[in-house]
Amino acid sequence: MNARAYLSAAGLVVLTMTLTFTGSENSAAQAKGGADRVMLEYRGGVNEPCPVASYPMTRVFPDGTNVAAFTVPPGMVLVVTDLEGIVRETVTWTAGRVAALTAFSTAGSSPRIRAYAPLITEAVFGGVVSMNVHLQSGVVIGPNLNVCVSASVFTQNGFTAAAVSQALLQGYLIAE
Fold it and tell me: What domains can be seen in the chain, in order of their start residue?
């Protein structure tokens, strides 16, 4: 039984949508009211220009080219809508704690987007936990700022460091 037949049998209405891609870079921008879609990925390496214990995000374009240590262009703002990632332990974890993956800009008082995940027994045993957050609106990062990512585990006395294993951030650029 194919997916369409299964969904129909379950009493769900099946809708068909046809998307046409023109190949022009402007088609994605026009789909979001003139916005330029952005995908940022953590690719490891040194933390410059980000603060200690955080790392810059690399912009990845649809054709596979990339720009390391992405900076929001002048006159634009980045609206961050999604953050997904995997955090791994750097010190022994305790079940019942909460891990966080945080994306922020190099401005000290900027807004942050943070994904949380509980450290259940399997995460503690494996030393890794995945997490994501998907916003209906977005967090705005201003022009001329780099986007950074960090990981931590919250404890009774504050937090301890954790390592970013993978991070993917999505959003779009709009005029300031």
Answer: 34-175 (2.60.120)
pTM of the model: 0.76
Strands, E assignment, 1-106: 36-41, 55-56, 58-60, 66-67, 76-89, 98-105
% of the chain exceeding 70 in pLDDT = 78
Q: Which token pair is 66?
A: 């990339």
82, 133 Cβ separation under 8 angstroms: yes
How far apart CA 82 and CA 68 sit, in angstroms, is 19
**Contact between residue 56 and residue 69 where contact means Cβ atoms under 8 Å apart:** yes
pLDDT tens across 82-121, in order?
A: 999 999 999 889 899 999 999 999 887 678 899 999 999 9
For residue 107, what is the DSSP state? S
Task: Kindly report the backbone phi and psi dihedral angles of residue 4, in degrees, each rounded to the nearest multiple of 5, phi listed first.
Answer: -65, -45
Do residues 145 and 80 lie in contact, with contact meaning Cβ atoms separated by under 8 Å?
no
Q: 49: cis peptide before it, omega within 30°?
A: yes
Q: What is the residue type of 118?
A: P
With contact defined as beta carbons under 8 Å apart, do 96 and 166 qualify?
A: no
CA dist 164 and 153 (Å) reads 11
* Alpha carbon distance 43, 163 (integer Å): 13
